Recover the amino acids of this structure.
């Protein structure tokens, strides 16, 4: 950030009075421009014990597998955003949508909120514009070496573990990536 | 938003090619300025079945009671942010911090993430700069008519219900306010 989005004057990185962190503050109108973490939300889509994964057609992690997920938009709920992303990236409609995993990715200032869901009849899915390929995987078919993000591995581990127990508690974890 | 934070040229609200929503786009450098929901996080602090509430010393809802919570900052985890807010607003240190409630407030583009926690020994607390007063309330002492936000009522209802059952599942709800 270089200029004030309200008045176009240059901003400086300073700690406002009464604050503890440096912020971009306008040199002219004194607007404080806060920057906050972004929310990514999506669905772990299941069908007969298999999980729907999307092969990414976009960077980062082009060609690797992920769950359908993306940035939450203003004026939508987490669940609406998760289902929208699932429809966009995997062309899948889902039901029995339940909160399943919340992840903090502090290094990249993101929060992930994932919902467990069942693929709706007639069990259609397909590659949306951001996916090269979309497929259902049983546990032994998961491409563990070709997953796009640490959170994908984590939520799959939770799911196949919980499925054996028959209970699906909501999980919370902090995820760190080697830098 | 009126001006581009990268180059100071005016922005227009247009739908970029391949997108489905209107965004602020720079007329000169074509930077797309996405705007996304903000995350508010905090703690439901409990001690011997009582709950810690803060009387707000700031707008909005000056003088009404809330749980310690505030905007998550970049580079922190949800739990770190929740504990920081609890220390700032209620001067309370907590332990046994566990994810407890996730709320979507789509009307105001916010996500709330609240953790259940126990007040740490020696059980100190006090009014931080944003609070007029901080106190522990048993269920029959809760000022139900003077709560600051619908999410405060909701999380208190969850807690006193769950306490009777002796189990504390993670809750998810969409919260709508009369407009």
């Amino acid at each position: 950030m270089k200029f004030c989005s309200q008045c176009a004057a240059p901003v400086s990185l300073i700690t406002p009075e009464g604050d503890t962190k440096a912020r971009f503050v306008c040199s002219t109108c004194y607007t404080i421009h806060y920057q906050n973490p972004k929310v990514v939300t999506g669905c772990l889509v299941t069908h007969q014990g298999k999980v729907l994964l999307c092969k990414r057609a976009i960077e980062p992690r082009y060609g690797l597998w992920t769950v359908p997920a993306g940035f939450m938009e203003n004026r939508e709920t987490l669940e609406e955003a998760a289902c929208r992303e699932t429809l966009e990236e995997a062309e899948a409609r889902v039901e029995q949508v339940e909160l399943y995993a919340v992840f903090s990715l502090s290094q990249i200032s993101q929060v992930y909120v994932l919902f467990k869901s069942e693929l709706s009849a007639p069990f259609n899915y397909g590659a949306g514009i951001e996916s090269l390929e979309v497929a259902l995987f049983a546990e032994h078919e998961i491409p563990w070496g070709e997953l796009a993000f640490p959170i994908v591995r984590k939520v799959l581990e939770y799911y196949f573990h919980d499925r054996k127990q028959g209970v699906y508690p909501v999980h919370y974890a902090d995820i760190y990536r080697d830098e």
